[in-house]
Design goal:
The complex is a heterodimer of chains A (about 120) and B (about 110). Chain A is mostly beta strands. Helix content of chain A is about 0%, strand content about 55%. In chain A, the strands form two sheets. In chain A, strands 2, 4, 5, 6, 9, 10 and 11 form a seven-stranded mixed beta sheet that branches. Chain A has a four-stranded antiparallel beta sheet with strand order 1-3-8-7, with no helix packed on it. In chain B, strand 5 and strand 6 form a beta hairpin. The relative contact order of chain B is 0.34. The chains are: A mainly beta (about 120), B mainly beta (about 110). At the A-B interface, strand 5, strand 9 and strand 10 of A face strand 5 and strand 6 of B.
Chain lengths: ~120, ~110
């Protein structure tokens, strides 16, 4: 099946710094990608929809100035957590839908820990 | 709007037991239905899917049938293994993004 990668898989940073997470579709193009956040033992919460060539669409309650999304190409979307704080610590997962299979494929996730 | 309800966990079974995880949905139109599995510390993997009524998705011994009349997509496996221990998410998509259930944690003990 289609493969989506994320980098890094784990990151630990100090409070106040910014962290960039990359999401790549490796063998298919994705004009849209999704960013989710998952709290321990909880389901996935959709944060935003990343659109190639245009602005991201954020879900209600998600600060767009804090979670910057850039969809630079048909295979790459990045999520930058700016001025990170301990409450931003979480598991961030991206996904990309494949038009040919009508299925979303998920990256392996990035665990962010803010000290 | 669209929604998915799946049975609360955790579910604990002995190896070789029969598994059912219930999932029902509310949706307009004709969504595709999915089961994803998440192993500890990992992202989500597609387990199986069905795109129209009466379709049966199957993979790795798991099965689920798209029942439009009962708006259900229950996940079943005849004989679970310890390696099946994970969190299972039911999801639907009429148009992306996916709508997820809350997840059901399965623990299989030897």
């Amino acid at each position: 099946g289609a493969v989506v990668s994320q980098h890094p898989s784990r990151v630990i940073c100090k409070s106040g710094t910014s962290v960039k997470i990359e999401c790549r579709s490796l063998d298919f193009q994705a004009t849209t990608m999704f960013w989710y956040r998952q709290f321990p033992k909880k389901s996935l919460m959709l944060m935003a929809t990343s659109n190639e060539g245009s602005k991201a669409t954020y879900e209600q309650g998600v600060e767009k100035d804090k979670f910057l999304i850039n969809h630079a190409s048909l295979t790459l979307s990045t999520l930058t957590v700016t001025s990170a704080h301990p409450e931003d610590s979480s598991f961030y997962i991206c996904s990309a839908p494949s038009a040919t299979t009508d299925t979303q494929y998920f990256g392996p996730g990035t665990r962010l820990t803010v000290l | 709007g669209n929604s998915v309800t799946q049975m609360e966990g955790p579910v604990t079974l002995s190896e070789e037991a029969f598994l059912t995880i219930n999932c029902t949905y509310t949706a307009t139109g004709y969504p595709s239905l999915f089961w994803y599995v998440q192993y500890p510390g990992e992202g989500l993997q597609l387990l199986l899917k069905a795109t129209k009524a009466d379709d049966k998705g199957s993979n790795k011994g798991f099965e689920a049938t798209y029942r439009k009349e009962t708006t259900s997509f229950h996940l079943e496996k005849g004989s679970v293994q310890v390696s099946d221990s994970a969190v299972y998410f039911c999801a639907l998509s009429g148009n992306t993004p996916l709508v997820f259930g809350k997840g059901t944690r399965l623990s299989v003990i030897a």
